[in-house]
Amino acid sequence: MIRTEIRKILTWKKLLCLLGFGILYFLLFIRPYVNIHPGSYHQTADIAEAITDKYGVSISPEEYEKMKSEAPEKGISAIDRMIAENALFQEYGFHTFQEFNLGSESLTPDEDTALWMEIYDSFSDAEVSEEFTRTIEINVYDMFLDSYRTEALQENGSANGTSVYKDLDDLQRQRVLERNREEVFTILPSVILEDNFQVLQFWSVFVIIGVIFMILPYMVQENQNEMPSLQYCCRKGRGYYLRKLEAGLITSLAVIGISIVFYLITAKINRVTDFWNASASSFSSGYIGWFPWSIGTMSVMSILFTAMMAAGAGMILFAVTRHCRNYISAIALALPLVILAGCYGAFFILDFAEITRGKYMVPMISAVVLGLGVLANLVQYMAEKKRNID
Predict the structure, then answer these.
(1) In a 3-state reduction of DSSP, which class is residue 62?
(2) Do 177 and 326 fall into the same domain?
(3) 24 Cβ contact list (under 8 Å, min separation 6)
(4) Cβ(201)–Cβ(345) under 8 Å?
(5) If the chain, 390 residues long, is cut into consecutive pieces of 10 residues, what is the mean pLDDT of each piece?
(6) What is the domain range of residue 203?
């Protein structure tokens, strides 16, 4: 019986529609945060990984001094000399390639193109690429060293114990001081944490909507086929509601499971798995969370709470569309859940468990939605047991 209901839910038409929607959703929302091609993102990860291999997961103040002494020297390259002598670059206040690279955002597209043409008139693509690599390496090292000095060594003397946040309350400052005892000394590039948050944000919305998409047509079709009435033809039919609910839950878990595999693939591409055990509240992450979690643990908890939300949303939809016979009314009932999914990703999974947010907000919301789903179906099941069909 359950297999039959699962087959009703997992039709080829719905699976192909969900796949098509998933591909489009990925291209529109998630793809910008999946770093497939080589570039500054992967170079930053390579440098952080090399530092970890050399000095260990946790960097002591003594190892910081050694890392500082072994940092790549800036020096003056041929491109730097050309920029220093070029009147057009001088007009914009650029004296080195590094200054130009960091300040190019303030230029108009035409100004930026004109300056690049000056460089490419004198140097080959390979020489410019090599200079880019050198500049990125210097910038990344400078970023790590500056972050360590301000966050781990506390050279700025902030009363909050961090330069990342201001105006913290006593509970938040207590958490920062706890983080400064151990977690702060680990290394985690901020770009990896930020892009992982972005992926999880949009991933969570897709999972919840995916579950809704599988449940809604099934309930409407069942009602159009008069299945709620047929289930009372025999005593055994009284348990039909629970079997349908079980089939819906199994299908929801299947959608969640496949989505988790997809997330893990993106995490592998984005190098999140390379820093899986690194503290999310490290000196270089630009983030401090309420809990002493690694980026891996934080990702797993985000997935867990999203799964709870998706299962709860699916059960709520199952209960409220129990007697919907047309798609318009069913979609109207599902719309608040879709809006909830968007808000959940944008306001709760993004920067999950950060100290500027409610400490237990995400677990509470997920538990409430799941609890409402269970309660709604319990009430509905008790009503179905007593219902008479004329």
Answers:
(1) helix
(2) no
(3) none
(4) yes
(5) 87 94 96 91 94 90 92 86 92 90 86 92 91 88 94 84 90 95 95 97 97 94 74 65 90 96 97 96 96 97 97 95 89 95 93 92 96 94 70
(6) 2-33+188-386
Locate 275 and state its tokens: 């820093």
pLDDT for residue 232: 62
Considering its fold, how many domains does the chain have in total?
2
Q: Are residues 136 and 154 in the same domain?
A: yes
Domain boundary among 185, 202, 223: 185
Q: For 94-127, what is each residue's pLDDT tens digit?
A: 999 988 988 888 889 999 999 999 999 999 999 9
Are 201 and 124 contained in the same domain? no
The reported pLDDT for the residue numbered 73 is 80
Out of 185, 216, 243, a domain closes at 185
Helix (H) or strand (E) holding 144: helix 125-147
Looking at residue 243, what is its pLDDT? 86
The pLDDT score that the predictor gives to residue 365 is: 96
Query: Within this chain, do residues 209 and 345 fall inside the same structural domain, yes or no?
Result: yes
Under 8 Å between Cβ of 157 and 253? no
Q: What count of Cα atoms within 13 Å lies in the side-chain half-sphere of residue 123?
A: 20
Do 247 and 229 share a structural domain? yes
Question: Is residue 132 domain-shared with residue 212, that is, in the same domain?
Answer: no
Contact predicate 232/238, CB 8 Å: yes
Contact 149, 247 (CB under 8 A): no
Q: Are 192 and 255 found together in one domain?
A: yes
Note whether 359 and 342 are within 8 A (CB): no
163-202 per-residue burial string, b: 16 or more CB within 10 A, e: under 16: bbbeebeeebbebbeebbeebbbbbbbebbbbbbbbbbbb
Shared-domain flag, residues 270 and 361: yes
